[in-house]
Amino acid sequence: MKNFILFLICIISLSQVSFIRPLKAEECDVSLGWEYITLRSSNWEGMGENIEIKSDGNYVSYLTKAGAVEGEAKEGTIDLSALISLTKFINDAGFYSFVNEYPAQVISKIGADYELTLKGKAAEKTVKFYLSGEKENAPAGLIEIVNKIYSLVR
Question: Of 46, 82, 112, 152, which residue is the least packed, with the fewest Cβ within 10 Å?
Fold first, then answer.
């Protein structure tokens, strides 16, 4: 019984140690190289979604209809390791070498226009593209970045 009580005390005290929980970006002196990332989408009916991720890990996501906010915004925080992973993913995908626009090859009712922006300390880059699920003109790396962002905020 004494060992069990010592075990519980140990677990409780370890849970209070900061390395057990994910660190937030503002708790570390880490520069991700960007201030914020925005991802906007809209379909032919004017329905879309806006996501903004700040370099401190805080994000907001909300649906839009004809450019107006629809429903409640979802807010949250992405931990530092996921932000670092996202930054590496964006760099490895070659985001900064993408052209500014990839026009649609095929337009359909299931497709959507996208706009991905990275605001850096000194510059900003925006890439516009259309995704429909068929004959995509956007590079695979760009589509993967979008999927990675969605996986972090949904």
Answer: 46
Percent of residues in the chain assigned helix, strand, coil, to nearest 5: 30, 35, 35
* Strand 112-120, strand 34-43: pairing: antiparallel
- Tell me the pTM: 0.78
With residue 102 as reference, give the H or E element that holds it: strand 101-102
Top pLDDT among 42 and 107 is at 42
Exposure of 25 in the CB half-sphere (CA atoms within 13 A):
24
**17 belongs to a structural domain:** no
**What is the number of residues in the chain?**
154
Q: What is the pLDDT of residues 112-150, one digit of tens each?
A: 999 999 998 888 999 999 998 877 889 999 999 999 999
Number of folded domains in the chain?
Answer: 1
Q: Is residue 49 part of a domain?
A: yes
